[in-house]
Amino acid sequence: MDELDPVIHASARLRICATLAALDAGDRISFPRLQELLAMTAGNLSTHLRKLEDAGYLAVDKTFQGRSPVTYLSLSTAGRRAFEDYTAQLRSLLGGTP
Questions:
Q1: Rounded to whole angstroms, how far apart are CA atoms 79 and 44?
Q2: Is the pLDDT of residue 98 over 60?
Q3: Which option is the CATH number for 6-92: 3.40.50.300, 1.10.3720.10, 3.90.550.10, 1.10.10.10?
Q4: What is the largest CA-CA distance in the chain?
Q5: What's the CA gap between 95 and 98, in Å, rounded?
């Protein structure tokens, strides 16, 4: 059996990926809203988002709302696929069907 993806397997990143995977493809969430949903500090969330971004799993869209910067986040196509693979491997590991 292949090992579970270590980028996703960390608890905080797994929670991030699960939350983002719940969004419809093409939808995104603002950084503050994700922070609120996950009850994480901005610094901790940023650190884990960077790991996901470096792996190519995260799409980051930085824009402005008026004069205020806003960051929107979503799983990239590769990120969705990696999360689907991760959950299939986990099901298989737990004795379920892949």
A1: 20
A2: no
A3: 1.10.10.10
A4: 52
A5: 9
